[in-house]
Design the sequence.
């Protein structure tokens, strides 16, 4: 293993959240369980315009068949995860916003065949970048780390912004979550294959596989597999949240800073894809396999049998929890990691592409916030150099204009500030609210003009 | 004696000189930094209500007054001031007042906490916008009033109070129709209604039938009886909700309102969503009485 | 999953330190200095502590009640720390009503009148100390102090004596070791034994409850300036002895426990350095040229006043703001 001095880290802020849970599932291989009888495939489970349903009630659909078509460039296709009959097209709750979103409800007919032409080896060697991109687009690949940004968009950097470094994000800095860790151990070669394909698409020479030091076996596996690959390097990362955030990762590895004010990684010649996304891109290009399933960690002190699983997109979360066993006293369900994940008001909702973990916790009591004591811990913790204390105070007072001057729009809501806050203030929620209010004001101004 | 005299003289002299110097300085400063103010700005400002609500689209009454006096902005933009202010401004500026219709805010939801309870335990910031960001907000009905009172807090005229059952009650006397509450509400349950129309729908649910019934006994189930019974054919259904076309037949919807089996229509001049007494008694009451409450309420009103 | 789910905002994990833990840790860090002060000054010290803490907690309860806050907050340790700190900066022989009036002033006027913990501009204990200085100048004299029990060496006959900083009669001043341990050195209850204070202070720094920058830059500035500034009112023997200055008076307790008060100091690292250097400059000037032998309390209270200004000016560099593209976008 490379000496500790090679460890890369972002220069400022960050926290070390206590994590008693990664060890619980990191040794458990990804398991594929019996498919559910019914799924609900949401039309809007990515950033950008929602897809348009292209099937109707009563239609028969094959596994992998398109059921929702991307609308516009920043949008993504959605596909049937198994063959069956469309029972209804009706709203279901989208776990990220809690809002109702149109969904295609499909009942399984038990047949396992893929739709024609899908899941077949492709002639990759003769393809050009545009063809590979269109396969990624067709297969509905989005960022599986949680951001769900359509991958074909990321693979099309603006003209004049050449990519010099492609970074595969295996940091997995969120506590509890272990899916990327398992994927890195179990599908090492395919991840490298995916990285090489991405490097071909964006015409880039240097590749990185970035892994936090708390996964030494994954670092070891990649170092073994990458022997004799001079262009691709393993970047061991210090164990610090939010090491896996795009900006922090780029700065840790290349020393460059993504410009503030809405800059993109491409502005500093970087492209970052999560481990699971890289695999999905690889499967799309090599096999023309649509994104119909994903790896999920189901864990937390409220879960009887924790583990890592491959689940179909659209599976009802309640069914998954019932299968794994919920302990008495469980009163909180979080989709995503415990730092940025979203607490759910109900478990009767479908799994979406961005759900990397389901965390069930027991006997959770939310602490009551107090007035800011100006201790400055949030300022120390903020990786972006914001003043979360001031932001939370201005948002509480409803002074949105002051919040804007304090660069509220730069905040990525990583939660470091609220994690360290001794007054237990809900800084992230206040910042989210501030952003909504500023958007509303902007819209109102535009309307008046 | 001589000494005291000289002190007095020196003091008086120095004060006089100092005073003269400062006076001169002030005079010069007043000359140098003089600004010509349009006297009409002050007049216009006087004629405005001075609530600084921003409903006109300007930062406050002063900026609107300046816009009217100096840039010839429309005199009818002050919503709280209504026709009176428009007439006064038109008089000052020597223009014709436009046709200003007085509006009033109304709440399209009657499902208070006792009728439409929360579906999860919410532990976050106690305002509607923040609550709506968390799993869609705790209210069982995804279209109903969240009940944290952001509208009441935002109202610059103190026209909104929250009932015991956590529903906004709008004081028609105090409401100027500025529309700030409409902007603030994340659920869009408040709208502006021309003040002379007396009836509106008390529900925003886009569900229909059983889906509504399961969530709230006061909800519109989209049975469409109102549209069928309305003699003026002024009710259209959009998103499972009746849309009232007030321009048709002068906004008389009494037949439609009578036809509604759930009494979803509210008479504006008695705009009490749930009588305070009823809300109080329902908290400990059985389910049966809760479900019966709407019809009792309706009888009380008619 | 029988009951309703709990929906709370992210992050769903929280660090262990909350206000209670922080305040109680500060109280624990003060314990060694409190213990040794009770040894030095006997029951006189005990009374001052009891009255100060009792009055602080009682006032806290009354104020919480008046403001409609949960009364459980009186147990968060903040009033306890204020009461402790106030007692520690009072002389052992002061009249019984001094800690009483001081504690009421600190909690009711300095803290709650401004909106409670987090909203106060000045460190409550120090502001109260300054207030008492003016209100009871006779009772709290800065030049006559009760002589403490000695740790070693012959006992002193006198009943009262001047602090090391006003000590004209002892032209040579005190021995460094005596100053370090507070052996026979008069002064406020808690300020004399520097070793006990350092133990507590270092504990707080290791626990990351206080920022090391404040004591380091504060003491460093005093060290440098007392050496560099031209001679003033002090007797020549120790006038330009920086170590003597650092070990005398309330500098150590001030630098570790007062100037590091989380509420009244800047929130940024650079801001705290500015704050600490400002305190150091003020202390050096007051000690050398001012009318009082000691200036720690004034320096901190004055710099507390500047804190909002420092926080307004000093902002960390925004991530990604140095790149040319960011400038172009802005």
Sequence:
């Amino acid at each position: 293993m490379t000496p500790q001095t090679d460890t890369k880290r972002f220069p400022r802020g960050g926290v070390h959240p206590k994590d008693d849970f990664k060890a619980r599932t990191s040794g458990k291989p990804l398991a594929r369980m019996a498919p559910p009888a019914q799924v609900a495939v949401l039309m809007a489970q990515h950033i950008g315009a929602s897809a348009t349903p292209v099937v109707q009630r009563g239609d028969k659909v094959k596994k992998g068949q398109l059921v929702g078509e991307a609308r516009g460039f920043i949008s993504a296709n959605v596909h049937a995860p198994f063959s069956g009959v469309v029972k209804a097209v009706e709203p279901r709750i989208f776990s990220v916003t809690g809002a109702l979103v149109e969904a295609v409800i499909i009942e399984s007919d038990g047949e396992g065949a893929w739709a024609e032409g899908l899941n077949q080896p492709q002639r990759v060697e003769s393809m050009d970048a545009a063809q590979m991109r269109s396969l990624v687009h067709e297969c509905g690949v989005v960022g599986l780390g949680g951001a769900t940004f359509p991958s074909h968009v990321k693979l099309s950097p603006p003209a004049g912004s050449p990519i010099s470094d492609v970074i595969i994000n295996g940091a997995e800095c969120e506590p509890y979550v272990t899916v990327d860790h398992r994927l890195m151990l179990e599908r090492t070669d395919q991840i490298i294959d995916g990285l090489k394909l991405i490097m071909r698409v964006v015409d880039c020479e240097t590749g990185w596989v970035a892994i936090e030091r708390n996964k030494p076996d994954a670092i070891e596996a990649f170092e073994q597999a990458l022997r004799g690959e001079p262009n691709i390097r393993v970047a061991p990362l210090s164990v610090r949240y939010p090491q896996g955030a795009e900006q922090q990762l780029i700065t840790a590895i290349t020393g460059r800073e993504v410009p503030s004010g809405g800059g993109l990684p491409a502005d500093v010649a970087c492209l970052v894809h999560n481990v699971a996304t890289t695999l999905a891109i690889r499967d799309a290009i090599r096999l023309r396999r649509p994104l119909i399933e994903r790896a999920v960690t189901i864990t937390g002190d409220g879960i009887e049998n924790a583990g890592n699983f491959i689940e179909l997109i659209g599976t009802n979360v309640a069914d998954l929890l019932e299968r794994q066993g919920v302990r008495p006293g469980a009163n909180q369900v979080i989709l995503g990691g415990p730092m940025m994940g979203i607490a759910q008001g109900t478990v009767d909702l479908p799994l979406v592409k961005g759900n990397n973990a389901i965390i069930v916790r027991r006997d959770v009591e939310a602490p009551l916030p107090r007035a800011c004591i100006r201790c400055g811990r949030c300022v120390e913790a903020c990786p972006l150099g914001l003043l979360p204390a001031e932001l939370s105070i201005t948002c509480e007072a409803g002074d949105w204009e002051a919040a804007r001057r304090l660069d509220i729009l730069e905040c990525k809501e990583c939660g470091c500030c609220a994690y360290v806050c001794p007054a237990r203030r809900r800084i992230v929620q206040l910042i989210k609210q501030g952003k909504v209010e500023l958007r509303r004001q902007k819209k109102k101004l535009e309307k008046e003009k | 004696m001589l000494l005291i005299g000289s002190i007095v003289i020196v003091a008086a002299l120095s004060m006089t000189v100092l005073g003269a110097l400062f006076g001169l300085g002030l005079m010069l400063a007043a000359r140098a930094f003089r600004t010509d103010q349009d006297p009409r700005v002050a007049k216009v400002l006087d004629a405005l209500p001075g609530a600084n609500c921003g409903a006109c689209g300007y930062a406050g009454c002063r900026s609107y007054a300046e816009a009217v006096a100096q840039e010839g902005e429309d005199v009818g933009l002050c919503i709280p001031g209504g026709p009176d202010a428009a007439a006064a401004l038109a008089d000052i500026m020597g223009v014709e007042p436009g046709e200003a219709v007085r509006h009033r805010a109304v709440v399209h939801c009657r499902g208070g906490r006792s009728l439409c309870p929360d579906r999860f335990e919410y532990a976050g910031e106690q305002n509607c916008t923040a609550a709506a960001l968390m799993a869609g907000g705790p209210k069982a009905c995804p279209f109903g009033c969240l009940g944290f009172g952001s509208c009441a807090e935002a109202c610059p005229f103190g026209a909104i109070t929250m009932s015991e059952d956590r529903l906004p009650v709008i004081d028609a006397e105090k409401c100027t129709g500025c529309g700030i509450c409409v902007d603030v509400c994340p659920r869009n349950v408040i709208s502006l209604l021309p003040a002379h129309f007396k009836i509106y729908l008390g529900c925003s649910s886009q569900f229909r039938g059983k889906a509504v019934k399961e969530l709230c006994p006061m909800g519109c189930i989209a049975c469409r009886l109102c549209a069928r019974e309305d003699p003026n054919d002024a009710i259209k259904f959009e998103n499972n909700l009746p849309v009232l076309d007030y321009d048709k037949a002068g906004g008389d919807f009494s037949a439609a309102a009578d036809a509604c089996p759930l009494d979803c229509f509210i008479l504006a001049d008695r705009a009490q969503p749930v009588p305070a007494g009823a809300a109080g008694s329902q908290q400990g009451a059985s389910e049966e009485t809760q479900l019966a409450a709407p019809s009792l309420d309706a009888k009380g009103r008619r | 999953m029988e009951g309703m789910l709990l929906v709370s905002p992210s992050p769903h994990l929280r660090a262990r330190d909350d206000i209670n833990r922080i305040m109680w840790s500060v109280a624990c860090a003060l314990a060694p200095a409190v213990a040794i002060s009770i040894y030095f000054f006997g029951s006189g010290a005990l009374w001052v502590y009891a009255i100060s803490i009792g009055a602080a907690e009682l006032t806290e309860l009354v104020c919480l009640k008046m403001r409609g806050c949960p009364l459980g907050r009186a147990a968060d340790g903040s009033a306890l720390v204020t009461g402790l700190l106030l007692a520690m900066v009072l002389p052992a022989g002061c009249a019984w009503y001094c800690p009483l009036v001081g504690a009421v002033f600190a909690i009711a006027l300095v803290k709650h009148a401004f909106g409670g913990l987090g909203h106060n501009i000045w460190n409550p204990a120090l502001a109260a100390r300054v207030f008492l200085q003016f209100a009871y100048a006779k009772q709290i004299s800065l030049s006559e102090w009760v002589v403490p029990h000695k740790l070693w060496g012959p006992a002193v006959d006198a009943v009262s004596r001047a602090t090391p900083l006003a000590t004209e009669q002892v032209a040579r001043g005190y021995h460094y070791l005596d100053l370090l341990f507070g052996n026979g050195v008069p002064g406020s209850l808690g300020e004399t034994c520097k070793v006990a204070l350092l133990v507590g202070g270092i504990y707080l720094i290791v626990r990351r409850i206080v920022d090391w920058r404040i004591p380091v830059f504060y003491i460093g500035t005093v060290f440098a300036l007392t050496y560099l500034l031209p001679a003033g009112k002090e007797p020549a023997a120790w006038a330009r002895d920086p170590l003597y200055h650092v070990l005398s008076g309330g500098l150590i307790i001030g630098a570790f426990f007062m100037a590091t008060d989380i509420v009244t100091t800047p929130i940024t690292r650079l801001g705290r350095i500015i704050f600490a250097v400002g305190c150091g400059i003020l202390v050096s000037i007051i000690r050398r040229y001012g009318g009082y032998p000691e200036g720690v309390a004034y320096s901190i209270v004055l710099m507390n006043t500047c804190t909002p200004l420092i926080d307004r000016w000093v902002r960390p560099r925004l991530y990604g703001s140095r790149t040319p593209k960011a400038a172009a976008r802005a």
Remarks:
- The interface with chain C takes residues 118-125, 134-135, 138 of chain B (CB under 8 Å).
- Chain B has two domains: 39-100, 104-284.
- The beta strands of chain B are 103-107, 121-122, 160-162, 168-170, 190-194, 199-201, 235-238, 241-244, 265-267.
